[in-house]
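User: Could you check the structure of this?
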Amino acid sequence: MKKNLVGLGLSFVLVMTATISAFADTTIDSVKKQQEKTRDNLNQVSKQIAGLESNKEELTEEITEMNTELVDILTSINVCQSEIDNKEKEIEEVSDKLDVAEQDEQDQYESMKRRIQFLYEKGDKAYVQALIESSGYSDLVNKADYVEKLYSYDHDLLIKYVGIKQEVSDLKYTLECEEAALESSRFELGQEQAALETLISEKKRTVENFDQQLAQARSVAGEMQKQLEAQTQQIRALEEAKRKQKEAELKKQQEEAAKKAKAEKNNQKAENNVAGSSDETSVNFETGAVESGEQNVAGEDNSDSDYEDASDDWSAGAAAVDSSGSTTGKKVISYASQFVGNPYVYGGTSLTNGTDCSGFTQSVYAHFGISLPRDSTSQRSAGVSVTYDQAQPGDLVCYAGHVALYAGNGMILHASTERTGITYSTATYRTILAIRRVL
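Assistant: Sure, the predicted structure tokens are below.
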């Protein structure tokens, strides 16, 4: 782009240099040649102006599209932040439940220890005394059964509390993993936002440079237009002077011819000396029309003849869905599943050495000859949109700042976080923004 701008600047200098000697020669032909050269230079500058305006328009459209994408990214960041806040509340609630479960487990454990200690310290005497003090066989059985039930109760209750503690602990771990995934998404969105804002700033500076170039070009074109008008006036003045000169010469010729005719008439009268003779010599002088030689310079149309509007024919149709889509989608998941457990690396695209979420989906699809955009925000526009109940294996499941492959049965396969790497998760673990089918 910079090379083009430099080239345009140099061309303006050349054009101006070519018009410096505009009125050096004052003959009509020479001025017409100069005028033709000025007209060619003006056409050249007009083409450069059209090119600058076209480039500026393209850049302006790109900036508009980028601003729309930036709004989308900022919206996704807000969604991510909201999900992170909600996840932190869930983790806090689960942490409280885990504290209660741990305390219940500890209390039951202490109670059980005290009972065991009491029975150990009393030894068999307590059991023998229970037998002696029993009023009968039935009473003895009841007391023995009570002791056994007490042991069973302590044991079962302790197992229950241990299970509750483990269940709550597992839930807390799951929530922490989900929060880490959200943090990764927010980080990726932040990187996309920074890169996009930098690109928008660069393009805006380029547009400003185009504005300067356009102002310079229009100034040059204005000077050339004035020069064309001055050259036209000069040609008219020279042609008018030439016409008057021809008229003066013709008048002089007419006067000389009249004098000559009169002299010849007088001489003939004198020679013939015939009375009553009235021979008259009639001389008919033609007064030919003055050819102006003026050409319709100003009327020539140079605005459209050298230009043709060109437009690119873009066909951005989405991939069609046919009966083979499901089979291909299963192949995609089968291929992608072999990389489960491999590391997550932000900015990476290696399925073995490390990749982020969009790099994972992009690399998997590349294996099947399908090209996807690099970032998760752009992949949200790939293919065609389908609803969640229509999702098939291989479809893209898009979240705020994250993208995954639908694996079927409500599960997704994705490059999640540094902690979990490439793994399976439930599709609804986060708010789904879109599901795209590219097969």
